[in-house]
Specification:
Helices cover 44% and strands 14% of the residues. It is globular and about 60 Å long. The termini are far apart. The chain binds (2S)-2-hydroxybutanedioic acid. The site of (2S)-2-hydroxybutanedioic acid has 6 residues, from loops.
Length: 394
């Protein structure tokens, strides 16, 4: 049965987890997988989530099925968190999904059911799992230019020119904030231009918001998404709680639909839930229930927001420290963009061979395209790291 199979290539990001763990060198630095880490390299359970879990343990008296959409309180709270207080909730539906990837796949399945020949446009570069997820749902894929490696900036004019050639009914996947892997983001005026373009050309925006709260703040990070929601007749969203609630392994995300009206929203939701039934039936409950408890309780929510803000500010400080250290050691402003990028990642613009040398010679782990996880930067070893990076430049 399996004799004709070839081994699947390892996922380039997830493979780093095993490689890093197996490295015995004491000074090794993990800038790989997108997981928040504190000063000690730990990824703690957030205070409010731990408290919510305690309450859940005490109050939960059954584990019977909830239904295909999971926890409805969670879904309502997530729609509010993402779309904001001004959202037209009658046109919005949300379904709990197994993490951000599960939400992406669920939306992709809905798109395939809506239009069997749907084409989705992805940014170049994008998160490496976007393509496999969209392909698995049977969508056609095209890419639009996004990032200028030399300057570390968004190639906005090129992005707009490419999207201007998209056909009516095509789908445009946009990173809501904290672009993964580049860290280069659209500003509000650019979001407004994109909103005009998608309306004019009849495109469907699909916003992946996996890092809300890691860039400029919880509301500021949703500005582009909300601006679109105010202008477009329809859009879809995949959101994740993996990072901003640090519930990575619990698999918590939400797939959302903004439809023309409430009736169309119900129909689209029913199709999305029928797709869920065929893939995994119902999402896992625990993490989403904990997130719902946090979001519905004013005190826990305030504490979660405060801890999230501490994490965000720490990443910003680390960005500045790395940019300054690289400026000192390279005698150039080549890496200054690291300080102006936002979110968990920046792409340094190194070759695969240079990334490999950093791993082999210095125990510094990053994704092959030179994406670094800013949260993994060593507060007390920034100069050594910058020196190592500069040493592989030529
Ligand atoms: C990442 O980009 O590192 C994270 O989103 C983890 C993953 O699943 O790839």
């Amino acid at each position: 049965m399996f004799e004709d199979l070839q081994p699947a290539p390892a996922d380039k990001i997830l493979a780093l987890i095993g490689l890093f763990r197996a490295d015995p060198r004491p000074g090794k630095v993990d800038l790989g997988v997108g997981v928040y880490k504190d000063r000690d390299g730990k990824t703690p359970v957030m205070r409010a989530v731990r408290e919510a879990e305690k309450r859940l343990l005490q109050s939960q008296d059954t584990k019977t099925y909830l239904g295909l959409a999971g926890d409805t309180g969670f879904n309502t709270a997530m729609a509010g968190l993402v779309f904001g207080p001004a959202a037209e909730l009658t046109r919005i539906r949300a379904a709990q999904a197994p993490g951000g990837s599960g939400a992406l796949r669920l939306v992709a399945e809905l798109l395939k059911r809506t239009r069997s020949d749907a084409t989705i446009w992805l940014s170049d570069p994008t998160w490496p799992n976007h393509m496999p997820v969209m392909r698995a749902a049977g969508l056609q894929i095209r890419v639009y230019p996004y990032f200028d490696t030399a300057s570390g900036a968004v190639r906005f004019a090129d992005m707009i020119s490419a999207l201007a050639t998209a056909k009516s009914g095509d789908v445009v996947l946009l990173h809501g904030c904290c672009h993964n892997p580049t860290g280069a983001n659209l500003d509000t005026a650019q979001w407004a231009e994109i909103a005009d373009l998608v309306v004019e050309r009849g495109l469907l925006p699909f916003v992946d918001i996996a890092y809300q709260g890691f860039g400029e703040g919880l509301d500021a990070d949703a500005v582009g998404l909300r601006l679109l929601a105010a202008k477009v007749p329809e859009m879809v969203v995949a959101s994740s709680c993996s990072k901003n609630f640090a519930v990575y392994r619990d698999r918590v995300g939400a797939a959302m639909i903004l439809a023309k009206d409430s009736t169309q929203a119900d129909v689209a939701m029913s199709q999305m839930l029928s797709a869920a039934r065929a893939m995994y039936s119902m999402p896992p409950d625990h993490g989403a229930a904990a997130v719902r408890i946090v979001l519905e309780d004013a005190t826990l929510r305030a504490d979660w927001e405060a801890e999230l803000e501490e994490m965000r500010l720490r990443m910003l400080r680390l960005r500045v420290q790395l940019a300054e250290a690289l400026r000192r050691h390279s005698n150039s402003d080549r890496f200054d963009f690291v300080a102006s990028h936002r979110g968990m990642f920046s792409r340094l613009g190194l070759s695969e061979a240079q990334v490999e040398r950093l791993r082999a010679e210095h125990g510094v782990y990053m994704v092959g395209d030179s994406r670094i996880n800013v949260a993994g930067l060593p507060e007390d070893g920034m100069d050594a790291l910058a020196k190592a990076i500069v040493s592989v430049l030529d």
